[in-house]
Automatic annotation (TrEMBL):
Membrane spanning stretches: 21-44, 64-95, 116-142, 148-166, 186-209
A Pfam family: EI24
The name this protein goes by in its record: Cysteine biosynthesis protein CysZ
KW Membrane (keyword) present: yes
InterPro entries per record: CysZ/EI24 (IPR059112)
Keyword Membrane belongs to the record: yes
Cellular localisation: Membrane
Keywords per UniProt: Membrane, Transmembrane, Transmembrane helix
Length: 231
């Protein structure tokens, strides 16, 4: 069921039907990441560089250059950790567009879902943005613990992204409380699907398409789960 949903979502990523939403999600994701890069860089220059200069005055040129390289790597890692929450925000804005395309092309005989009200969708996405940031900070700290390391990234994002995208997809067809209850009932399935999203998120460049892939995949998964509920 999970692999079928992932395969169906991946097969649609570059299809003509997805072209409009593809360009919107990709463009907004890139724009948000670029804005965050400049914001983080400016914050680093404002707060960290004066402190380093005061602590280590008279550094040789090579040491200063090495410091800038290390800082650049740190900034890149910080930006990588922000891809997941940025994905949540972008998905909150365009999930209904993705879902409508999937439902129209792959489930033409089924009743269409209802769009989640824009303000409610944005509020949920902003709330989740904060949760994912906190979760990824915890994951970053766990990277320092032997035996856990990179698994922390997949576990944290697998759980959080799986939960978020499934509930978004489910709320097109059922009230929020019922969507959450359905997600809890199939918690293991949703978590495993979230791990696939986390794996997608870990691939450079491809991860820019995470909102599109995750939203489409969870629409398919919700359809499969709903069909199982009727049996």
């Amino acid at each position: 069921m999970i692999l079928d949903a992932a395969r169906a979502a991946a097969s649609r990523l570059f299809s003509p039907e997805f072209r409009s939403v593809f360009l919107k999600t990709l463009g907004l994701t890139v724009l948000a990441l670029v804005a965050l890069w400049f914001a983080i860089s400016s914050l680093f220059e404002w707060l960290a560089l004066p402190w380093i200069d005061a602590l280590l005055p008279g550094l040789p040129a090579w040491a200063g250059l090495l410091g800038l390289i290390i800082a650049g790597i740190g900034l890149a890692l910080g930006l990588a950790l922000l891809i997941a929450p940025v994905t949540a925000i972008v998905a909150g804005l365009f999930l209904d567009d993705v879902a409508e395309v999937v439902e129209r092309t792959d489930y033409p005989g089924d009743p269409p879902g209802r769009a989640v009200p824009a303000l409610h969708s944005l509020a949920l996405a902003i709330k989740f943005f904060g949760v994912v940031i906190i979760g990824n900070i915890v994951a970053l700290l766990l990277l320092l613990v032997p035996g856990i390391n990179i698994a922390a990234f997949f576990i944290v994002n697998g759980y959080l992204l799986g939960r978020e995208f499934f509930e978004f997809a489910a709320m097109r067809f059922r009230p929020e409380a019922e969507a959450k209850a359905l997600r809890r009932k199939y918690a293991g399935t949703v978590f495993l699907a979230g791990l696939l999203i986390a794996a997608f998120l870990a691939v450079p460049l491809l991860n820019l398409l995470t909102p599109l892939f995750a939203a489409a995949m969870m629409v398919h998964l919700h359809k499969a789960v709903s069909a199982r509920e009727l049996v």
